[in-house]
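Standup notes
- DV: blocked on the single-chain target, sequence here:
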Amino acid sequence: MLPGIQSRRRFADLSEQEILALAISSEEDDARIYRTYAERLRAEFPASAAVFDGMAAEEDTHRQRLIDLHQRRFGDHIPLIRREHVAGFYARRPVWLVENLGLERMRAEAKGMEQDAERFYRAAAARTSDAGTRKLLGDLAAAEAGHEATAQGLEAEHLDAGTRRSEADSDHRKFVLTWVQPGLAGLMDGSVSTLAPIFATAFATQDTWTTFLVGLAASVGAGISMGFTEAASDDGQISGRGSPVKRGIASGVMTTLGGLGHALPYLIPHFWTATITAIVVVFIELWAIAWIQNRYMDTPFFRAAFQVVLGGALVFAAGVLIGSG
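- DV (later): unblocked, structure below
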């Protein structure tokens, strides 16, 4: 048995005291998560932060009711038992992962958290024999089920239609500036700038392995360069473009992928098969760039396609001519 696995308890084996202790620690964790969301949003989305503050306060109320019941039944000492100590118990995603995915993602995660908690309280109530404990757990299950209405009430209090629309527009703009724009710039640079060296090498040597190595080096080198350039060029404080680390990652990764897309076909040993495959991949990459420009940057699709395809065709032609010379 792997280390740590054997120490996990089955939910069916927990005593009523341990079930209450698990509920208390779960409410503490959920309140902490909501407060983390609120702090993350407070500067840019104060109204939504107030909603999460209200949800955290309600979790605090649940926790206090559970603690009061535990004190009456079992005394002041609450056993240390948490979600990760119980096999098969629902887990929470790392808060750093969710808080970086935007406002709507946080709202969806909060809804899922309430549904998980409701299922837990119903299962816990079914396993208790004490009438008072069973009633409280059933009440909390109903409260968790009603949290969607509570959240809607908090949103109605803090989020009017104009505020919600303004926050949604701001969230979308931040997503575009932090992830889409740097990623698109990287994809364009990786897809277009590597065309010349890859196809020049291909037609000069007609050696697929050498072409692949040149393409790999060009893609990785361009990715590192673009990533560091994007991260160092703007700290995001004045421009509002968000974290330089996130932008650097988006730009660097997409630059590398853009170049690797038409370098990887040269792992095929047959030169013309590899080259035709690479050309098809280039075509797909260029149309993907045009689609992203149209979808997120509001550029008319055919204008974007013309610009990208024309630029790519010129670089491709330059690579072929240089390699064939």
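- Follow-up: Residues 161-193 form the longest helix (33 residues).
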